[in-house]
Structure formats: C-alpha cells, structure tokens
Amino acid sequence: MHRDFFIDARKQLIINLKQKGIVSETVLNAMLKVPREQFVPKVLSKRAYEDISLPIDKQQTISQPFTVARMTSLLEVKEGDKILEIGTGSGYQAAILTELGAEVYTIERHFELHNQARILLSTLYPQHKIYSRYGDGTIGWSEHAPYAGIIVTAGAPEIPQTLLNQLDIGGKLIIPVGDEKRQTMHCVVRQDESSFLDYPLDDYTFVPLIGKVGWKA
Ligand code: SAM
Questions:
Q1: Which pLDDT tens digit goes with each residue over 6-49?
Q2: CA–CA distance, 104 with 30 (Å, rounded to integer)
Q3: Which is the closest atom of ligand 1 to the Cα of 138?
Q4: Quick check: CB of 140 below 6 Å from ligand 1?
Q5: In a domain, 65, yes or no
Q6: How many domains, in total, are found in the chain?
Q7: In whole angstroms, what is the distance from residue 22 CA to residue 5 CA?
Q8: Whether residue 146 has a cis bond before it, omega within 30° of 0
Q9: Å from CA of 2 to ligand 1 middle
C-alpha cells in the first residue's frame, strides 16, 4: 500500500470525525499525526482509517477512531500532564496521548500486546515519555500517582475506587461502565480529597476490563 494512500485516508478520517461532532482541534491534530495503519494487523492496514474498531491479537480490539477522539477530548490533556491508560492494546491511544504532549503511563494485561505496543511506541517515539507495564490495570500504578487523567479503554462493571484514589485534585477519570454488552461512558472529576463528581454520558460497547477490581477472567 502506498504511503500517500494512508495520508489521504487519515485526512479523510479527520473530516469524518468533525462531521460526527468532534470539535477539539488539538485532538484532531494529534489523530492526523498518528499512523493508525501501523497499529492494526498488516492484513487490515488498508482498513485502518475506516471509523470502526478492528481486531488485534488475543481477541482484543483497537477502538473505533470516534471513540478514541471522544474519550481523548473528554480528558482535556494539557502539555506535560501525567496520564494513566488502562488497556494499552495496540498502543494507538497511547500514541495520541503522547502527540498531545502527555507523559504517558499505560498498562496491559496481555503480555504479547504489552510487548508489541512497547516496541512500536519506542520505535515511533524514541524520545517521548511513554512508560508501559504488563499487569492488572484495575489497581492502577500507584508509584507514579497522582495523575491529571486516567483513561480506561475496556468496559468495567463499576468505577474502581483504586483508580479514583490515584487522581490528582481536579483530575478526571474517563471510563465505560456497564454490563458485558453495553456500557455508559463516565467522566468523573475529583473535587477534593474525598469528593468526586460523576457525569454519565453516551453509550458504547467495549471488550471487558478483567482484573481484581473488574470482571473475573
Ligand atoms: N487502547 C487500546 C488501543 O488503542 O488499541 C484499545 C484496547 S482494547 C479496546 C482494551 C484493552 O484492555 C485490551 O487490550 C485488554 O487486554 C485490556 N485490558 C482488559 N482488562 C485489563 C486490565 N485489568 N488491565 C490492563 N489491561 C486490560
């Protein structure tokens, strides 16, 4: 596949996302820079810029671009923010976060996915602050807390208190919560030490968040 094909397809995707209501120029610009074709299996690369989720290894998915754009917009990332992602998957969401200037911490429970994403991200962004870890993200990554934002890219049965505890004051947790079939996106903002404002938003379908404070394997 020719390089220009991907560049044109990426530009077209940004137009589609605008038409679907994504307004954040910073998020759209970040998405214009990240080569999504490198985050999907080779056989699917020509479909990389369709606005759909695609299968990756371990029966997981790379999220639909609209969902990535929506969740990232909700996070309102500022240059230098420390952001924790639960569910590295392909590494695409982490790439968008690094393009926005965030210091990125990302956790994945499948070793193969963790390793593939780690290699790809360090190849594309050798100088960037992207730290990846293999393990259960439902308990967070307390050594680097507090975070300005935490983004969970798998469907949770409930909002994990462990993650709320690792938010900075004013920090946001973006997480889909519901049953195995359908989840509602929640944006939870930490007001102070002990109070949080929870905004339930639109509905999505994600692969399950499996772990100590998630679904059982
Ligand atoms: N952010 C990913 C991307 O850009 O490709 C999308 C990932 S996919 C929708 C969700 C990921 O969450 C899967 O790779 C899955 O293995 C992972 N996951 C599920 N439960 C997890 C947990 N407790 N800790 C870390 N990762 C988890």
A1: 999 999 999 999 999 999 999 999 999 999 999 999 999 999 99
A2: 14
A3: 23
A4: no
A5: yes
A6: 1
A7: 23
A8: yes
A9: 30
Q: Each residue of 110-160: pLDDT tens digit?
A: 999 999 999 999 999 999 999 999 999 999 999 999 999 999 999 999 999
Question: Which tens digits make up the pLDDT trace of 70-87?
Answer: 999 999 999 999 999 999
What percentage of residues in the chain have a pLDDT greater than 90?
98
Query: Does some domain include residue 150?
Result: yes
CATH number at residue 157: 3.40.50.150
* Cβ atoms of 14 and 31 closer than 8 Å: yes
CA of 88 to the centre of ligand 1 (A): 5
Q: Compute, in angstroms, the gap from residue 155 CA to the centroid of ligand 1.
A: 9
Which element (helix H / strand E) includes 130? strand 130-134
Length of the chain in terms of residues written: 217
- Answer yes or no: is the C-beta of 117 below 6 A from any ligand 1 atom: no
Q: Among this protein's residues, is 24 annotated catalytic?
A: no
The answer to whether residue 213 sits within a structural domain is no
Name the residue range of residue 185's domain: 3-204
Q: Catalytic pick from 24, 45, 53, 63?
A: 63
